[in-house]
TrEMBL record:
GO terms for molecular function: oxidoreductase activity; quinone binding. InterPro entries: VKOR, VKOR_sf. It is found in: Membrane. Pfam families: VKOR. It comes from marine metagenome. It is a multi-pass membrane protein. Its main location: membrane. This is Vitamin K epoxide reductase domain-containing protein. The chain crosses the membrane at residues 20-41, 47-69. Keywords: Disulfide bond, Membrane, Oxidoreductase, Quinone, Redox-active center, Transmembrane, Transmembrane helix. One of its GO terms (cellular component) is membrane. Residues 18-68 form the Vitamin K epoxide reductase domain. Belongs to the VKOR family.
Length: 86
C-alpha cells in the first residue's frame, strides 16, 4: 500500500512537486528495504525455505530504493538537517 502511494506521488511530481513528495519515495523505500531485509533473514534462518517471489520483490525494492536515494538523497539529507559536504 505504501509503495503504491509513493509511486503515485513520484508519477505525479511534475504536477505538484512539493518537498514532501520528493521525500516520500526514499523514506518509504528505506522502510520497505529494512522490512524486506528482516523477511529475508526470517526466510533464511527461521523458516529455512526460500520464496522466489519474495526474493524478486525484495530485489526490486532495493533497486527502487537505490534509484530514489540516488535521485533525491541530497534533498533528504537537507531535510533531515545534514550539511552538504560534512
Amino acid at each position: 500500500v505504501l509503495f503504491s502511494l509513493a509511486l503515485d506521488r513520484y508519477l505525479n511530481m511534475d504536477l505538484e512537486r512539493t518537498r514532501y513528495n520528493v521525500l516520500l519515495l526514499p523514506l518509504v523505500g528505506l522502510s520497505g528495504s529494512a522490512f524486506g531485509a528482516y523477511l529475508t533473514y526470517a526466510e533464511a534462518f527461521i523458516i529455512h525455505q526460500w520464496c522466489p517471489f519474495c526474493l524478486t520483490a525484495f530485489a526490486l525494492t532495493l533497486g527502487a530504493t537505490f534509484f530514489a536515494l540516488r535521485t533525491y538523497g541530497a534533498e533528504l539529507k537537507n531535510f533531515i538537517g545534514g550539511n552538504d559536504g560534512i
